[in-house]
Amino acid sequence: MKNKIYGMVLGKGTLPPGMRASDFSDKFYNGVQLRQAPRNGMAVVMRSNSADPLVWRILYGAVDLHFRSYKEAMDYCNSHNLTLLQQEDSQCD
Q: Can you count the helices (H) and strands (E) in the chain?
């Protein structure tokens, strides 16, 4: 696995100044949300640039998950206590 998100949240609900979900975008995915994972880790919710069957992606620690819909991705976030910290405008439609 290439993409791992470690040690980015400074404290509960706090991000380094200027950090945005779009900082994690690449040519395949756009970063659309930053979320706080349990134990002060950070998760990134990403949306694919293609009409792939698995459009949504969540990265945190060594976890790399893919989902067909935004609702499925948000259900996973809510059931695993991934709290929203920052969201890019109009990227989660």
A: 1, 5
Q: What mean pLDDT comes out for the span 28-53?
A: 88
Residue pair 65/1 in contact by the 8 Å Cβ criterion: no
Per the structure block, which two tokens stand in for 91?
Answer: 């990227």
**What is the model's pLDDT at position 13?**
67
Q: How many CB atoms lie within 10 A of CB 75?
A: 12
Q: Quote the pTM value.
A: 0.82
What is the CA 76 to chain-centroid distance, rounded? Answer: 11
Lowest mean per-residue pLDDT among 5-9, 33-37, 38-42: 5-9
C-alpha pair distances (Å), 13 with each of 10, 52, 85 = 8, 32, 6
Q: Is the pLDDT of residue 63 over 90?
A: no
Considering only CA atoms, which of 27, 47, 42, 28 is closest in space to residue 89?
47
Tokens of 51: 């009409």
The alpha helices in the chain, defined as continuous H runs, are 70-79
